[in-house]
Amino acid sequence: MRTILHLSDIHTTFKADNEEGATAHSRFQTIVNSILKEPKLKPHGVPSIIAITGDLMDDFSTDTLTEVARLVKVLRDADHPVFVIPGNHDYRVGKEIAPKADTFWSKLVRFDHSQVEWLTEMPKTKAKYPYAALVDNDLAVIGMDSMAERIGKKYPWTAVGEFGSAQMQTLEELLLSPKIKNAKRRLLLMHHDPFHDSPLKEIIMRLVKDEQKKLKLLLQKHAVDLLLCGHLHEAIVYNRKSILKEDTSSLLGMCIEGGTSTRFKLPESELGSSERPGPHRLLNIDPPSISIPDLKLLEA
After folding, report:
1. Contacting residues for 287 by C-beta, under 8 A, at least 6 apart
2. CA-to-CA distance for 96 and 81, rounded, in angstroms?
3. Quick one: DSSP state of residue 39?
4. Hey, is 295 helix, strand or coil?
5. Which of 37, 103, 110, 230 is least enclosed, having the fewest CB within 10 Å?
6. C-beta neighbour count of 195 within 10 angstroms
7. 64-103: per-residue pLDDT in tens?
8. pLDDT tens readout for residues 6-53
9. Is-contact 116 133, C-beta < 8 A?
10. CA distance linking residue 283 with residue 287, whole number of Å
11. Complete domains list, the chain, with CATH
12. Model confidence, pTM
């Protein structure tokens, strides 16, 4: 089964006066160039899956989205299946959350690959989450949008996320569907970390509480091997027992919060002072494990 490179919270800005975002853009270019040259990301000649769990942009703009899409296409053209889901910053325009879901979808989410079978409809323009795909006939990938219910509203200072009841219901239906249920492994992607237990982040930077509870119940019922997320910039790894307080083989194997792959620094007022350097983790999913903690893709 393919290895998985997990990237998150890139926060790039293109053609703008955001100095940190411009630095993040340069670093993302370096990461892409390093991926193309890194032999560990093509074991036995098979390109790794790349999962990017949101906040590819620091603020939405057409120029930045086009540039990020160009860099993602470079990776896809090198035969890497690149799965992308949006984060809160991908929808942010100033103090608003703009309804840019369809633009993000058409530019970044949809792609064709000879070894990827889409299990959900992949329309060209209209965004549709959660999406589901089968890679190499043995790995099921499900991608969710944790900002779906915030679109068109003011940008919340708490940076909370919300899937909405329809998306949660579809997630359960997908987990029950034969191709996903019978897949050898299941990978779930989302931006907001659903399992943090920091007292401060019980108020900010989280999913709404009802959805946290519903997600835990879903994962108690269905076998998900690996959940990848971002948002916190803390690079946390949870094992199954610490998340769900159970030790049953049908539960989530591991949850990994990806930190920030470009080492992007958010203002302390927005995140606090607990950021850590973001690793570039190469993951195995059979069984779930971290095979190389940091590929050092920024050092090329």
Report:
1. 225, 253
2. 32
3. G
4. coil
5. 37
6. 20
7. 999 999 999 999 999 999 999 999 999 888 777 777 788 9
8. 999 999 998 777 788 889 999 999 999 999 999 999 988 999 999 999
9. yes
10. 10
11. 4-299 (3.60.21.10)
12. 0.92
